[in-house]
Amino acid sequence: MALEHAILVSLMERPGSGYELARRFDRSIGRFWTATHQQIYRVLRRMEADGWIAVEQVTQDGRPDKKVYSPAEPGRLALAEWLREPVEPETVRHELAVKIRAAAFSDPGALVAEVERHRESHAALLAHYLAGERRDFPDPSGLDAQEQLQHVVLRGGIEYERMTLAWLDDVLATLHRLARTPSTPQD
């Protein structure tokens, strides 16, 4: 997926300025597709030049004018075409998992603090997702199609974090057990 597609999705959901779009990435889209503010602005300029987005200058009192972006027909067509393209399953690079395997050749207890740090980070992210769900989707029965799809992506993030926390708990239990057991030389 290109950043252009993530931007188009966000603009389809709600037109906005580059600043507003960058904030949306920081708040929600950035959990599964990251981009710096500079990247977003650079891609917006390119999308405007390619005719994928329309730009409206909005006058503001006491502040500089702002540009509000919205999808143009070529952008809508590009998004529809991209939506129909197959997506390959993602490959995951997980440095912590490699370190956990490496602990077999050293002191497993030495990795406990790092795994606990990861666990705290994932627990905080889960709490953030759950708070967002309570805030944004208080009554799931009354959601329109767009909101249902946003909610199902959020629920995927929630379940991913729950699964990760369960795995990290398993890793910690294993590390603690191995730290108490004398190691056996590997053949």
Write down the overall mean pLDDT: 90
Q: Quote the distance from N terminus to C terminus.
A: 44 Å
Estimated structural class: mainly alpha
The low-pLDDT segments are: none
Please estimate the helix content. 55-70%
- What is the helix tally? 7
Overall body shape: elongated
Instruction: Report the sheet with the most strands, covering strand number, pairing sense and barrel closure.
Output: 2 strands, antiparallel
- As laid out across the biggest beta sheet, the strand order is 1-2
Order of helices and strands: HHHEEHHHH
Task: Please state the oligomeric state of the protein chains shown.
Answer: single chain
Count of DSSP E strands?
2
Q: Provide the gyration radius in Å.
A: 22 Å
Q: How much of the polypeptide forms β-strand, as a percent range?
A: 5-15%
Give a quick summary of the entry:
The protein has helices at residues 3-13, 18-27, 37-49, 73-83, 95-102, 112-136, 145-180, and strands spanning 53-58, 66-71. It is mainly alpha-helical and 187 residues long.
Architecture overview:
- The structure is a single chain.
- The protein is mainly alpha-helical.
- 61% of the residues lie in helices and 6% in strands.
- The protein has helices at 3-13, 18-27, 37-49, 73-83, 95-102, 112-136, 145-180; strands at residues 53-58, 66-71.
- Strands 1-2 form a two-stranded antiparallel ribbon.
- A hairpin with a 7-residue loop joins strand 1 and strand 2.
- Helix 2 crosses helix 3.
